[in-house]
Amino acid sequence: MSADIKFDQVLDAKGLSCPLPILKTKKAVETLAKDQVLKVETTDPGSKNDMASWAKRTGNEILKVDEGSGTFTFYIKKSA
């Protein structure tokens, strides 16, 4: 259940398609302090793979991914 993950900021990227969800996520994560969590909501099906690749490349951690009703919700912890 997503209620157990505390997040510090929310990014609504619904309705945006690649590469905008990733670009907006990158900018939002840059504003966070280490170990803070960003909740990202997107409707782009490609974002599932894109977010995983981006997180691996940047060293940030995806704590959880929720899928439902055409929306993908990512909880991303800033690692550095």
Reconstruct the topology from this structure.
Blueprint (H helix, E strand, L loop, with lengths): L8 E5 L6 H11 L6 E6 L4 H12 L2 E8 L2 E7 L3
Parallel strand pairs: 1-2
Antiparallel strand pairs: 2-4, 3-4
How does this structure look, described?
The chain is of the alpha+beta class. The protein has a single domain (2-77), classed as 2-Layer Sandwich (Translation Initiation Factor IF3). Helix content is 29%, strand content 32%. It has two helices and four strands, in the order E-H-E-H-E-E. It has helices at residues 20-30, 47-58; strands at residues 9-13, 37-42, 61-68, 71-77. A four-stranded mixed β-sheet has the order 1-2-4-3, covered by helices on one side. Strand 1, helix 1 and strand 2 form a beta-alpha-beta unit. It is globular, with a radius of gyration of 11 Å.
- The CATH class turns out to be Alpha Beta
In terms of per-residue confidence, which ranges show pLDDT below 50 for 5 or more consecutive residues? none
How many E-type strands? 4
CATH architecture: 2-Layer Sandwich
Order of helices and strands: EHEHEE
Number of domains: 1
Largest sheet: 4 strands, mixed
Across the major sheet, the strand order is 1-2-4-3
What is the helix fraction of residues, given as a range? 25-40%
Q: How many H/I helical runs?
A: 2
CATH superfamily label: TusA-like domain
The value of Rg in angstroms is: 11 Å
